Amino acid sequence: MSRQLVVFDFDWSMADQDTDRWVFEVNAPEIRRWMEDNEDKIQFTDMIAHALRDAHARGVTREQLEHALRIMPFHPAMVRAITNLKAVGNTTFFCLSNANSVYISLILKDKGLDSMFTEIVTNPAEWTPEGLLVLRRRVDPNGPQHTCKVGCSANMCKGDELEAFFTRHTPAYDRVVYVGDGSNDFCPALRLRSQDLLLCRTFGGLHKRIAKDGGLKCEVKYWTGAWEVEEVFKTLA
Ligand SMILES: [Mg+2]
Ligand SMILES: [Zn+2]
């Protein structure tokens, strides 16, 4: 039995929405509008941290944010796909996301998937006793910065994080399957080998970036709905 690793981006890859935007669409559309108008001006993680402080000041509660995460679209086929492949026994699951630890843990627990993931690497977040979610960049802005030239945001280089995971989990996996949609999934995709597989969602920055720049060594399969990921996962068992 070969050793296999499945790496999941979270927003629009494992989940059928974007946590950072959704919680404000549900609870504070005026803050969602502010994000839309400022996305190009502020580093994304810093912008979300600011939006969370703003929401808290306007009276949006921890319970309201948690409720929004629980009702966020998450396809049942994705739950089945992960659960069934995990049950076969030779696959490690790793979540690599630009969202945050609180959002991802809550949703994985809600879907019964929390025990499936060996590691979650994302931006750290924690609740204060007053119900403010304090979000920080994965790469501390006051410390050494990553040196990625592919275009990863300052908060995290997903390619570097993938390599670091490989270093923590030797020997090398026989096959790596990466599920992603965003432009920040292009950097880790470049690190995949010829025997690896990229499952690229058809809408989003990753598809566009592959079309524009290419250079991938791995096989690429395109998908739109989670039911298609479930089909592919059945062939990986
Ligand atoms: Mg994504
Ligand atoms: Zn990078």
Automatic annotation (TrEMBL):
<dbReference type="InterPro" id="IPR036412">
    <property type="entry name" value="HAD-like_sf"/>
</dbReference>
<protein>
    <submittedName>
        <fullName>Phosphatase phospho-type</fullName>
    </submittedName>
</protein>
<feature type="active site" description="Proton donor">
    <location>
        <position position="11"/>
    </location>
</feature>
<dbReference type="InterPro" id="IPR016965">
    <property type="entry name" value="Pase_PHOSPHO-typ"/>
</dbReference>
<feature type="binding site">
    <location>
        <position position="181"/>
    </location>
    <ligand>
        <name>Mg(2+)</name>
    </ligand>
</feature>
<dbReference type="GO" id="GO:0016791">
    <property type="term" value="F:phosphatase activity"/>
</dbReference>
<feature type="active site" description="Nucleophile">
    <location>
        <position position="9"/>
    </location>
</feature>
<dbReference type="Pfam" id="PF06888">
    <property type="entry name" value="Put_Phosphatase"/>
</dbReference>
<feature type="binding site">
    <location>
        <position position="9"/>
    </location>
    <ligand>
        <name>Mg(2+)</name>
    </ligand>
</feature>
<keyword id="KW-0460">Magnesium</keyword>
<dbReference type="InterPro" id="IPR023214">
    <property type="entry name" value="HAD_sf"/>
</dbReference>
<feature type="binding site">
    <location>
        <position position="11"/>
    </location>
    <ligand>
        <name>Mg(2+)</name>
    </ligand>
</feature>
<dbReference type="GO" id="GO:0046872">
    <property type="term" value="F:metal ion binding"/>
</dbReference>
<keyword id="KW-0479">Metal-binding</keyword>
<dbReference type="InterPro" id="IPR006384">
    <property type="entry name" value="HAD_hydro_PyrdxlP_Pase-like"/>
</dbReference>
<keyword id="KW-0378">Hydrolase</keyword>
